[in-house]
Amino acid sequence: MNRQTAAKDFIQATTNGGITEGYMPGFGNDFETEALPGALPVGRNSPQRIEYGLYAEQLSGSPFTAPRTTLERSWMYRIRPSVKHTGRFRSADMPYWKTAPHVVKDIISLGQYRWDPVPFPNAPLTFVTGMRTMTTAGDVSTQTGMAAHVYLANTDMVDDHFYSADSELLVVPQHGCLKIFTEFGILDLEPLEICILPRGMLFRVELPEGEARGFVCENYGAKFTLPGRGPIGANCLANPRDFKTPVAAFEDSERPCRVTVKWCGRFHITEIPQSPLDVVAWHGNYAPFKYDLRNYAAIGSISFDHPDPSIFTVLTAPTAEEGTANIDFVIFPERWLANENTFRPPWYHKNIMSELMGNICGVYDAKPRGFVPGGISLHNCMLPHGPDRTAFEHGTTESWEPVKMKNTMAFMFETRFPQQLTGFAAKEAPLQDDYIGCWDGLEKKFDGTPGLKD
Ligand SMILES: [Fe+2]
Fold first, then answer.
1. Per-residue pLDDT tens digits for 96-107
2. Considering 306, 379, 385, 394, which one is annotated as catalytic?
3. Nearest 5°: CA angle at 142, between 138 and 147?
4. Per the confidence metrics, is the pTM higher than 0.85?
5. All domains of the chain, ordered by start, with CATH?
């Protein structure tokens, strides 16, 4: 097996055949990878002594006794055990990263809200210190709910690492690239790609192109997984082969560094004398991965009406209640609209689920104006919403001919729990005061006489 230098002092495994250089394809596979030959024990997890003097350690993403279908764990073979990568903790101040339950007095979350893109900062901020919470939902201590964040980063994390014991992180870049060094390997991420950073996994983020902005869904609950396809069958939506997990990569660095831990909504820092990204080999099914949203095979109606937006679910974080997700991650990608005698924009509705949307690029069909790339909207539990006047006019008069929706990619973090606004979202982020006005032009057409009205 060949070796290559990945970045700086990292030594990275290479995949045979080079089909996915630096990555292994598949969703939830039992992967195995080693950055040095023979580092990975064969046929057992924890032999008495391990090649290269490595330590064996298990990272459990599910309880030991979880059903086999949801059981997740990985075995890591590392230079030092993780216990050497934590120490005495001191509290850290992270005033903009909020955790549920977080209800701010005098802030009304009941409303239809929309924000312009949150501007890039002037002060130096990393992926972690630049996290700005927009909404929280549920309760982190019962491992239910989520938080929706915007990250604003212009500074690399140098000898600075982070992990969340509270959550897995779904990262959705909107501007700029991220290079994420994790215990399991290296992820390169650009807009229109997403990644999952598992609960409890150490990482740091560098910014190869300078400043970066995007969205993070912090999932306190059960891990994101692929939705069932039902009658759709064995293919389409997000196909498992398109998910990519990094090959092993490690650094053997004695530079002093620090680790920040998020635990029950609070942040703690510890200083350590070496890099904790020292996993030389690993195997298992609990690991980070990335996915290119352009690979999503969208399904829609080819007769009339259009399906519920759940047809665009990329990943779902389930609860014990079947079909009731803690979070659905839904996208609105480029696609053909080929339904006749149909109002093609999303219909007007109220929803028991709470919908936070973001625009990654292009134009969103229900809101041709005002919902710009980098922008965010919130339609909370049982708050009515739907197309604005412009979208309604177009949707009720357009030709029935098939049409391709181009240059568009929006997403939704949809949760069963009401989303509470943070002080940042209500008072500091660029909230559009006139958003509710986008429906002002929807006049009464009914006059008591039959017939379709213009
Ligand atoms: Fe909706």
1. 999 999 999 999
2. 306
3. 35
4. yes
5. 296-433 (2.60.120.10)
